[in-house]
Write a structure and sequence with these properties.
By secondary structure, the protein is α+β, with helices and mostly antiparallel strands. The protein folds into 3 domains: 2-76, Phosphorylase Kinase, domain 1; 80-254, Transferase(Phosphotransferase) domain 1 (Transferase(Phosphotransferase), domain 1, Orthogonal Bundle); 274-440, no CATH class. Helices cover 39% and strands 13% of the residues. The strands form 5 sheets. It has a 5-stranded antiparallel β-sheet. The chain has a 3-stranded antiparallel β-sheet with strand order 6-8-9. Strands 7-10 form a two-stranded antiparallel ribbon. α4 packs antiparallel against α5, α10 (289-296) runs antiparallel to α11 and α10 packs parallel to α13. It is globular, with a radius of gyration of 24 Å. The two termini are 38 Å apart.
Length: 443
């Protein structure tokens, strides 16, 4: 498929399944180096790092194989182009399209940071676009290091690396990847598609700090960029770490990607159809006044029961009495957002589906069930005590409960609908579907 400074990648067919895979090895030049064995250890460690990640916007590594002295990494095959190639072919991207890809990679980075790692090489050439899909995938984890590491290699990509990456010891943290993500967005919105040599990149941090070379505002190159996005990019690319946007989540908020819609408390009126990146989010005409009133009065158990009732009504599953994965996958985003925001508002940010999603993903939770992650989540939100899952009658309907404890129906209450005595078994699939739906609804 291609060869770079370190590796060669092949496309491979597995005859028994007919599936295509990508296999990457160190290239011939690397194999002739005296330190080949050492370089191959680094190469394998990178593969094992990615193998530990499970996120839809991160390249999937399946296994490490060996032929003689040469190791190969078996990865998912992605038929597509990098964002770098895409921009060279098409020129500056529309703001809405650029934000879509940055939001996807931003969520992948939040996952990586929650796992205790930094990517350290975010750039358009390390982001793949699946063919015929507006879906970005983060690749190349060769510079990835633990956030806790105090001394790191000075490897970097000019134009995308922050000033601290030019030093072995610096103020490293999530803000390090924020700079590169902001610089990537800068490129997507400002690069000249006629520059076939690919020379265009943001002014390197080193030049900005020591040569007083200014970084032109993105709007200087593209007047169509909104002021909000222009300002968010510049704040994300502040030279000094302490002045820079501290986290990817905050950067996404500054870009307007983390939607905090005001709640329409005149809920007798139909909820307007919302859009996100041009996608219609169909709503229902559900009346949420009773849920609002229970929450405003601090009647947490009644609010939990009302949450069950309205969700069943919206999904048209009152007869079944429980939500399956399909009904959650298709649950209207606007209704889910309204329910969540009511819980978040009246609990002071302590309860709500979005709070539970953040905790669940913080442990590495995905749509795929992982018992260890599931139990850690249960312990954190207080749904488990002494290694055992709680009965519903033991749920704490009080603001003193742990963060994310409510709404308990998110998982604990499903045990009644599935005819199960305790939390466990099939409920994990239901909750992971809910977390997945919150992601797709940008909640």
């Amino acid at each position: 498929m291609g060869s770079g400074g370190f590796g060669t990648t092949y496309k491979a067919l597995e005859p028994s399944t007919g599936k295509l895979y990508a296999i990457k090895t160190l290239n011939q030049q690397m194999q002739l180096r005296e330190d080949f064995a050492e370089q191959q250890v680094k190469f394998i460690n990178e593969a094992l790092t990615i193998k530990g990640f499970d996120h839809q916007h991160i390249l999937k590594v399946h296994e490490v194989i060996q032929a003689g002295e040469l190791f190969g990494v078996v990865m998912e095959y992605i038929d597509g182009v990098t964002l770098f190639q895409y921009v060279r072919q098409n020129g500056q991207l529309a703001e809405s399209e650029a934000l879509l890809y940055i939001d996807q990679i931003g969520q992948a980075l939040e996952y990586v940071h929650a796992k205790g790692s930094l990517h350290r090489d975010i750039k358009p050439a390390n982001i793949l676009l699946r063919q015929n899909k507006q879906e970005a995938v983060l690749i190349d984890f060769g510079l990835t290091r633990s956030i806790a590491t105090k001394s790191m290699t000075a490897s970097l990509t000019e134009g995308y690396a922050p000033i601290e990456q030019y030093r072995r010891k610096g103020s490293f943290g999530p803000h390090t990847d924020v700079y590169a993500l902001a610089a990537t967005l800068y490129y997507l919105l400002t690069a000249d598609g006629l520059n076939k040599e690919g020379e265009f990149s943001p002014v390197p941090a080193q030049n900005r700090k020591y040569d007083d070379e200014p970084l032109p505002a993105p709007k200087h190159y593209n007047s169509r960029i909104s002021q909000r996005v222009n300002d968010a990019i510049l704040q994300g690319m502040e030279i000094e770490p302490e002045k820079r946007t501290p986290t990817v989540l905050k950067f996404r908020e500054n870009l307007g990607l983390v939607v905090q819609q005001p709640i329409n408390f005149d809920i007798t009126q139909p909820i307007n159809v919302e859009t996100f990146h041009g996608t219609s989010l169909q709503t229902s005409n559900m009346d949420y006044r009773k849920l609002r009133d229970y929450l405003a009065q601090g009647k947490w158990k009644e609010a939990d029961e009302e949450t069950i009732r309205v969700m069943l009504a919206v999904a048209k599953r009152e007869k079944e009495g429980w939500l399956d994965e399909g009904s959650i996958d298709n649950f209207p985003c606007a209704d889910l957002r309204t329910i969540d925001q009511l819980w978040v508002k009246y609990s002071g940010g302590k309860f709500g589906f979005s709070v539970q999603k953040r905790i669940y993903q913080g442990f590495g939770g995905t749509r795929k069930y992982d018992r260890e992650i599931w139990e850690k989540f249960g312990d954190k939100v207080g749904w488990r005590k002494g290694g055992n899952w709680l009965y519903y009658k033991d749920v704490t309907f009080d603001k003193k409960a742990p963060e994310g404890h409510l709404p308990g129906m998110g998982v604990v209450r499903f045990r009644a609908w599935l005819g199960l005595r305790r939390v466990g078994g099939r409920k994990e699939g239901v909750f992971s579907s809910l977390a997945s739906r919150l992601v797709s609804c940008n909640i």
